[in-house]
Amino acid sequence: MSFSQAVFANNRLLAALPHKDREQLLTHCEAVKLDSAQMLYRSGELIRHVYFPTGCLISLMRPVNDSAGLEVKLIGNEGVLGFTLMLGVDVTPFHALVHGSGPALRMTAPAFLDELEHSPALQQELKRYLYVTMTQLAQNAACTRYHVVEARLARWLLMTQDRAHSDHFHVTHELMAHMLGVRRVGITKAANSLLKQKFISYRRGDITILDRAGLETAACECYRADKDIYERILGEEHTFLPHYRDEPIAPHSYSSGMDGV
Ligand SMILES: [Zn+2]
Question: How far is the CA of 149 from the centre of ligand 1 (A)?
Protein backbone atom coordinates (compact mmCIF):
# COMPACT_ATOMS: atom_id res chain seq x y z
CA MET A 1 0.00 0.00 0.00
CA SER A 2 1.43 3.40 -0.98
CA PHE A 3 1.68 6.29 1.46
CA SER A 4 -1.33 8.03 -0.08
CA GLN A 5 -3.39 4.84 0.02
CA ALA A 6 -2.47 4.38 3.68
CA VAL A 7 -3.58 7.93 4.49
CA PHE A 8 -6.86 7.62 2.63
CA ALA A 9 -7.54 4.19 4.10
CA ASN A 10 -8.06 5.95 7.42
CA ASN A 11 -11.10 7.80 6.12
CA ARG A 12 -13.79 5.49 4.83
CA LEU A 13 -15.28 7.92 2.33
CA LEU A 14 -11.94 8.59 0.72
CA ALA A 15 -10.89 4.96 0.84
CA ALA A 16 -13.95 4.08 -1.25
CA LEU A 17 -12.95 6.36 -4.13
CA PRO A 18 -11.30 4.99 -7.28
CA HIS A 19 -7.51 5.15 -7.20
CA LYS A 20 -7.25 7.99 -9.73
CA ASP A 21 -9.72 10.18 -7.85
CA ARG A 22 -7.99 9.51 -4.53
CA GLU A 23 -4.58 10.43 -5.88
CA GLN A 24 -5.94 13.62 -7.42
CA LEU A 25 -7.68 14.61 -4.19
CA LEU A 26 -4.55 14.02 -2.13
CA THR A 27 -2.67 16.66 -4.09
CA HIS A 28 -5.00 19.27 -2.54
CA CYS A 29 -5.06 17.89 1.02
CA GLU A 30 -2.89 18.84 3.93
CA ALA A 31 -2.53 16.69 7.02
CA VAL A 32 -3.45 18.57 10.20
CA LYS A 33 -3.78 17.67 13.87
CA LEU A 34 -6.93 18.87 15.56
CA ASP A 35 -7.02 19.52 19.30
CA SER A 36 -9.82 18.86 21.77
CA ALA A 37 -12.11 21.86 22.32
CA GLN A 38 -10.97 23.44 19.03
CA MET A 39 -13.89 25.14 17.29
CA LEU A 40 -13.55 24.55 13.55
CA TYR A 41 -16.73 26.35 12.48
CA ARG A 42 -19.35 28.48 14.15
CA SER A 43 -22.91 28.38 12.94
CA GLY A 44 -23.46 30.95 10.20
CA GLU A 45 -19.79 31.27 9.34
CA LEU A 46 -18.30 30.82 5.91
CA ILE A 47 -16.90 27.34 5.29
CA ARG A 48 -13.24 27.84 4.44
CA HIS A 49 -12.05 24.25 4.74
CA VAL A 50 -13.41 20.74 4.35
CA TYR A 51 -12.12 18.15 6.83
CA PHE A 52 -11.82 14.41 6.37
CA PRO A 53 -11.12 13.02 9.87
CA THR A 54 -8.61 10.19 9.99
CA GLY A 55 -8.24 9.91 13.76
CA CYS A 56 -10.17 12.70 15.46
CA LEU A 57 -13.77 13.21 16.63
CA ILE A 58 -15.84 16.22 15.66
CA SER A 59 -19.23 17.11 17.16
CA LEU A 60 -21.79 19.08 15.18
CA MET A 61 -23.66 21.27 17.65
CA ARG A 62 -26.88 23.08 16.82
CA PRO A 63 -26.99 26.28 18.88
CA VAL A 64 -30.24 27.23 20.58
CA ASN A 65 -30.74 30.84 21.69
CA ASP A 66 -27.35 31.84 23.07
CA SER A 67 -26.31 28.39 24.27
CA ALA A 68 -23.73 26.17 22.59
CA GLY A 69 -26.66 23.87 21.85
CA LEU A 70 -27.09 20.16 21.45
CA GLU A 71 -24.90 17.64 19.66
CA VAL A 72 -26.77 16.54 16.55
CA LYS A 73 -24.05 14.47 14.88
CA LEU A 74 -20.71 12.94 15.68
CA ILE A 75 -18.17 12.70 12.86
CA GLY A 76 -15.15 10.41 12.86
CA ASN A 77 -13.23 8.69 10.10
CA GLU A 78 -16.47 7.49 8.53
CA GLY A 79 -17.41 11.03 7.50
CA VAL A 80 -16.52 14.51 6.36
CA LEU A 81 -17.06 18.02 7.68
CA GLY A 82 -18.12 20.76 5.30
CA PHE A 83 -20.04 18.69 2.79
CA THR A 84 -22.87 21.25 2.58
CA LEU A 85 -20.64 22.99 0.03
CA MET A 86 -21.81 20.41 -2.46
CA LEU A 87 -25.34 21.82 -2.07
CA GLY A 88 -24.13 25.24 -3.14
CA VAL A 89 -24.27 26.59 0.43
CA ASP A 90 -21.02 27.99 1.76
CA VAL A 91 -22.12 28.73 5.33
CA THR A 92 -22.51 26.12 8.04
CA PRO A 93 -25.70 25.59 10.07
CA PHE A 94 -23.72 24.00 12.94
CA HIS A 95 -20.90 24.68 15.32
CA ALA A 96 -18.17 22.11 14.68
CA LEU A 97 -16.30 21.29 17.87
CA VAL A 98 -13.40 18.86 18.16
CA HIS A 99 -14.00 16.61 21.14
CA GLY A 100 -11.37 14.01 20.45
CA SER A 101 -7.97 15.21 19.32
CA GLY A 102 -6.26 13.57 16.37
CA PRO A 103 -5.34 13.87 12.71
CA ALA A 104 -7.46 14.89 9.73
CA LEU A 105 -6.98 15.75 6.10
CA ARG A 106 -7.97 19.27 5.21
CA MET A 107 -8.53 21.02 1.89
CA THR A 108 -9.70 24.51 1.04
CA ALA A 109 -13.30 25.06 -0.01
CA PRO A 110 -12.35 26.19 -3.57
CA ALA A 111 -10.11 23.13 -4.06
CA PHE A 112 -12.89 20.87 -2.77
CA LEU A 113 -15.43 22.38 -5.15
CA ASP A 114 -13.02 22.01 -8.04
CA GLU A 115 -12.42 18.35 -7.24
CA LEU A 116 -16.13 17.79 -6.83
CA GLU A 117 -16.82 19.19 -10.27
CA HIS A 118 -14.34 16.82 -11.89
CA SER A 119 -15.03 13.65 -9.89
CA PRO A 120 -18.40 11.92 -10.38
CA ALA A 121 -17.23 9.30 -7.89
CA LEU A 122 -16.71 11.92 -5.19
CA GLN A 123 -20.08 13.48 -6.01
CA GLN A 124 -21.81 10.14 -5.68
CA GLU A 125 -20.06 9.23 -2.45
CA LEU A 126 -20.94 12.55 -0.84
CA LYS A 127 -24.54 12.48 -2.03
CA ARG A 128 -24.89 9.14 -0.33
CA TYR A 129 -23.20 10.50 2.78
CA LEU A 130 -25.67 13.38 2.74
CA TYR A 131 -28.57 10.92 2.61
CA VAL A 132 -27.10 8.97 5.53
CA THR A 133 -26.59 12.20 7.47
CA MET A 134 -30.19 13.35 6.89
CA THR A 135 -31.45 10.00 8.13
CA GLN A 136 -29.22 10.11 11.19
CA LEU A 137 -30.29 13.67 12.04
CA ALA A 138 -33.92 12.54 11.93
CA GLN A 139 -33.10 9.52 14.09
CA ASN A 140 -31.36 11.79 16.55
CA ALA A 141 -34.37 14.08 16.82
CA ALA A 142 -36.61 11.11 17.62
CA CYS A 143 -34.04 9.75 20.06
CA THR A 144 -33.86 13.00 22.01
CA ARG A 145 -37.64 13.06 22.36
CA TYR A 146 -38.45 9.42 23.08
CA HIS A 147 -35.48 7.64 24.66
CA VAL A 148 -34.29 7.75 28.25
CA VAL A 149 -30.94 9.22 29.26
CA GLU A 150 -29.29 5.90 30.13
CA ALA A 151 -30.09 4.41 26.71
CA ARG A 152 -28.95 7.60 24.95
CA LEU A 153 -25.72 7.67 26.95
CA ALA A 154 -25.00 4.03 26.09
CA ARG A 155 -25.61 4.86 22.43
CA TRP A 156 -23.31 7.89 22.59
CA LEU A 157 -20.52 5.90 24.25
CA LEU A 158 -20.73 3.23 21.54
CA MET A 159 -20.68 5.87 18.81
CA THR A 160 -17.64 7.47 20.41
CA GLN A 161 -15.90 4.12 20.77
CA ASP A 162 -16.54 3.32 17.10
CA ARG A 163 -15.05 6.59 15.94
CA ALA A 164 -12.20 6.67 18.45
CA HIS A 165 -11.30 3.09 17.49
CA SER A 166 -10.44 2.52 21.13
CA ASP A 167 -12.04 1.06 24.24
CA HIS A 168 -10.64 3.91 26.25
CA PHE A 169 -11.23 7.65 25.93
CA HIS A 170 -11.46 10.77 28.05
CA VAL A 171 -14.76 12.57 28.55
CA THR A 172 -16.19 14.29 31.62
CA HIS A 173 -19.76 14.05 32.95
CA GLU A 174 -20.09 17.73 32.21
CA LEU A 175 -19.22 17.25 28.53
CA MET A 176 -21.52 14.24 28.21
CA ALA A 177 -24.38 16.26 29.73
CA HIS A 178 -23.61 19.06 27.32
CA MET A 179 -23.54 16.77 24.30
CA LEU A 180 -26.79 15.04 25.18
CA GLY A 181 -28.57 18.21 26.32
CA VAL A 182 -29.46 16.90 29.79
CA ARG A 183 -28.63 17.96 33.32
CA ARG A 184 -25.38 16.70 34.77
CA VAL A 185 -27.21 14.86 37.55
CA GLY A 186 -29.03 12.86 34.88
CA ILE A 187 -25.74 11.81 33.29
CA THR A 188 -24.28 10.86 36.68
CA LYS A 189 -27.27 8.65 37.43
CA ALA A 190 -27.14 6.98 33.99
CA ALA A 191 -23.36 6.49 34.14
CA ASN A 192 -23.62 4.96 37.61
CA SER A 193 -26.14 2.46 36.32
CA LEU A 194 -23.79 1.45 33.47
CA LEU A 195 -20.96 1.21 36.03
CA LYS A 196 -22.98 -1.07 38.31
CA GLN A 197 -23.72 -3.36 35.39
CA LYS A 198 -19.96 -3.41 34.69
CA PHE A 199 -20.44 -2.23 31.10
CA ILE A 200 -17.99 0.63 31.64
CA SER A 201 -15.44 1.88 34.15
CA TYR A 202 -15.07 5.56 34.87
CA ARG A 203 -12.40 7.46 36.77
CA ARG A 204 -11.84 11.19 36.57
CA GLY A 205 -13.07 11.42 33.03
CA ASP A 206 -11.31 8.31 31.79
CA ILE A 207 -13.89 5.91 30.40
CA THR A 208 -13.16 2.31 29.49
CA ILE A 209 -15.68 0.15 27.69
CA LEU A 210 -15.53 -3.16 29.58
CA ASP A 211 -18.45 -4.99 28.02
CA ARG A 212 -19.39 -3.77 24.58
CA ALA A 213 -22.10 -6.39 24.06
CA GLY A 214 -23.68 -5.38 27.37
CA LEU A 215 -23.52 -1.72 26.43
CA GLU A 216 -25.28 -2.51 23.16
CA THR A 217 -28.14 -4.10 25.07
CA ALA A 218 -28.40 -0.93 27.18
CA ALA A 219 -28.37 1.40 24.15
CA CYS A 220 -31.53 2.48 22.40
CA GLU A 221 -32.34 1.15 18.94
CA CYS A 222 -30.96 4.33 17.37
CA TYR A 223 -27.40 3.03 17.66
CA ARG A 224 -28.13 0.06 15.44
CA ALA A 225 -30.30 2.17 13.10
CA ASP A 226 -27.43 4.64 12.55
CA LYS A 227 -24.95 1.88 11.75
CA ASP A 228 -27.37 0.04 9.50
CA ILE A 229 -28.13 3.05 7.34
CA TYR A 230 -24.44 3.82 6.94
CA GLU A 231 -23.52 0.27 5.98
CA ARG A 232 -26.52 -0.11 3.70
CA ILE A 233 -25.73 3.04 1.73
CA LEU A 234 -21.96 3.41 2.09
CA GLY A 235 -20.67 0.09 3.42
CA GLU A 236 -18.05 -1.98 1.65
CA GLU A 237 -20.40 -4.60 0.29
CA HIS A 238 -22.50 -1.89 -1.32
CA THR A 239 -19.86 0.15 -3.09
CA PHE A 240 -20.91 1.31 -6.53
CA LEU A 241 -17.57 2.27 -7.92
CA PRO A 242 -17.77 0.25 -11.14
CA HIS A 243 -20.87 2.23 -12.11
CA TYR A 244 -19.23 5.62 -11.73
CA ARG A 245 -17.42 5.46 -15.01
CA ASP A 246 -20.15 4.19 -17.23
CA GLU A 247 -23.69 4.94 -16.26
CA PRO A 248 -25.89 6.60 -13.67
CA ILE A 249 -26.80 4.50 -10.68
CA ALA A 250 -30.35 3.21 -10.60
CA PRO A 251 -32.22 4.49 -7.53
CA HIS A 252 -32.78 1.00 -6.12
CA SER A 253 -29.67 -0.75 -7.31
CA TYR A 254 -28.40 -1.52 -3.82
CA SER A 255 -29.17 -4.56 -1.78
CA SER A 256 -31.58 -4.27 1.12
CA GLY A 257 -29.31 -6.39 3.33
CA MET A 258 -29.02 -4.85 6.80
CA ASP A 259 -26.33 -7.03 8.30
CA GLY A 260 -22.71 -6.22 7.74
CA VAL A 261 -21.89 -3.85 10.55
ZN1 LIG B 1 -32.42 6.60 20.71
Answer: 9
Identify the CA nearest to 80 among candidates 105, 53, 59. Answer: 53
Query: Residue 121 C-alpha to ligand 1 middle, in angstroms?
Result: 32
Return the bridge partners of 169, or none: 207
Q: Which domain holds residue 232?
A: 3-144+221-244
Per-residue model confidence as pLDDT tens digits over 13-38: 999 999 999 999 999 999 999 999 99
Residue 251 counted as domain residue: no
For 49, 71, 177, 234, 261, the CA distances from 237, given in Å and listed in that order, are: 30, 30, 36, 8, 10
**How much is the pTM?**
0.84
186 and 206: one domain?
yes
Inter-residue contact 215 to 199 (CB < 8 Å) = yes
Structural contact between residues 54 and 103, judged by C-beta atoms closer than 8 angstroms: yes
